[in-house]
Amino acid sequence: MAKKTTNPTKSLKIPALIILSAKLCAFISTKLVTRFAAKIFTTPIKHKVPKREFEMDSKSLKKTIYVPSIYKSVVTYLYGASERKILIVHGWSGRGTQLFKIADELLQNGFSTISFDAPAHGKSEGKTTIMSEFIASILEIERQFGPFEFAIGHSLGGMSVLNAIKDGLSVEKAVIIGSGDIVQDILDEFVFKLGLKKEISQNLRDFFENKYQVKMDDFSAYRAAQKIEIPVLVVHDNDDPEVPVKAGIHINENLKSGNLFLTGGLGHRKILGNQNVIRKILEFIKND
After folding, report:
1. Which residues form the AB hydrolase-1 domain (predicted)?
2. SS3 call for 213
3. What value, to the nearest 5°, has the Cα angle with vertex 43 and ends 228 and 54?
4. Do 119 and 19 belong together in one domain?
5. Which of 8, 126, 191, 225 would bridge 267 by S-S if both were Cys, CB 3.0 to 4.6 A apart?
6. What is the span of the domain harbouring residue 25?
């Protein structure tokens, strides 16, 4: 019997029980549903390392480092022995070995990679996290393992890379794949998938801004892009069901030195292992 293939354009769905719970909370009170939504929004799913990532996982030198600014520790992966180092940042509910095909090709081309399990992801401790903790982890990893020649980020990792560069990460070039863009759009989509009224996304934004004393839009990728001088390759799939292609296009429009590469039929995750994408990344980082 042929194996079932995963449709790369199929969006991940929120479990029905969580949607039902959200609607019940909304029936009780706006404050309760806002707190419930915030909890779900900041809680990633920890997946087991799939077999395809075993080689990178086993061959990497792992080290747990403490990130003082967020009072949390993360597990890092040094893959390869070259002094030419590239930082790799996974997305939401991802792992430090998720971009293993890209890392393998980089090794074969004379680079080593540093990746990490973000807080509450993979082997790192914790249950909840937010993008600012991804960014803080990146900056601490640069301090301990840098300098890096290049940085590559997927999805939320792409947003985090752009924000980290804005905040001082020093790299020659960056690659972002399937990156989100406007934070409010992300909140709106999340609230829609929960089956809640749109105004709840405004409440959710206010909740996070009050809790963390930040402006959520300050983390939008296009705003970081406006302050970035280095060349950035923006890779996005036209059929990405989780992060619409308009996000990648808008980020590229706001970069001073942006390069847009659009694919088709690869969705949000299959794009990470596509040979044409990997070839484009290698060409981008190698060319002056």
Report:
1. 86-165
2. coil
3. 80
4. no
5. 8
6. 14-43+183-213
- Statement to judge: residues 86 and 196 lie in one domain: no
pLDDT in tens, 244-278: 999 999 999 999 999 999 999 999 999 999 999 99
Read off the tokens for 112: 């080593």
Cα gap 69→52, rounded to integer Å: 34
Determine phi and psi for 41, rounding to 5 degrees. -65, -30
- Number of structural domains (the chain) is 2
Q: Which residues pair with 62 in a beta bridge?
A: 77
**Is residue 9 situated within a structural domain?**
no
Which run of H or E residues covers position 102?
Answer: helix 100-108
pTM: 0.92
CB-CB contact of 150 with 86 (8 Å): yes
Report how far residue 227's alpha carbon sits from residue 47's, in angstroms, rounded to the nearest whole number. 35
| Residues 28 and 63 occupy one common structural domain | no
Bridge-partner residues for 77, per DSSP? 62, 115
CB 234 within 8 A of CB 255: yes
By the 8 A CB rule, do 187 and 201 touch? Answer: yes
Residue 211: other Cβ atoms inside 10 A: 10
Q: pLDDT-based confidence at 288, cuts 50/70/90?
A: confident
Q: Largest alpha-carbon pair distance within the chain? A: 59
